[in-house]
Amino acid sequence: xxxxxxxxLKSAFQEADWPQDAKAEIAFLGRSNVGKSSLINSLLGVRGxxxxxxxxxxxxxxxxxxxxxxxxxxxxxxxxxxRAPKALKAEWGANAENFLAKRAQLVLSIxxxxxxxxxxxQDLQLHEWLEHHQKPNLIVATKSDKLSNNELRRNIDRAxxxxxxxxxxxxxxxxxxxxxxxxxxxxxxxxx
Length: 192
Known about the structure:
β6 (137-142), α4 and β7 (168-170) form a beta-alpha-beta unit. This protein has 5 helices and 7 strands. It has one domain: Rossmann fold, CATH 3.40.50. 34% of the residues lie in helices and 22% in strands. The chain is an alpha/beta fold. A 7-stranded mixed beta sheet has the order 1-3-4-2-5-6-7, with helices on both faces.
């Protein structure tokens, strides 16, 4: 896909703040520090549009990005490591689940996992939730450039087994590995 424009639209802390038009949306979800923002920046070929951080849990709102003035990418808060009060973490989780459950504009959920680690309990729960609610989704394993080919193959096989799927896109934001496969899935979901 040719990116002609990509802009940060807004951060939403509650449902009332979500964009109200009918543009299709692709959500990015996964644990804190898994590389969701780097994945978004890499896909768009734009540096720093989605803010990245070495501190887990920086994304605390739903961040909407308008792409080609046609559809939106939505960066959801990560789950897991964030150093925040439990009540606040529960609120982020509720906001994300509410979005996934209610959002009619959502055409694809990109579930981001770290290729270096086995899927976490929360990864498994999220995958089960998406499957149970029949939400179209794609699993993308990031940070693949940080592993040898043997380690990567072993870890991806383990992830497929744990998540009970044959479909895991191997991705590297640095090398742009997997970029075309992710865009292909996004384009397909936008047509559907």
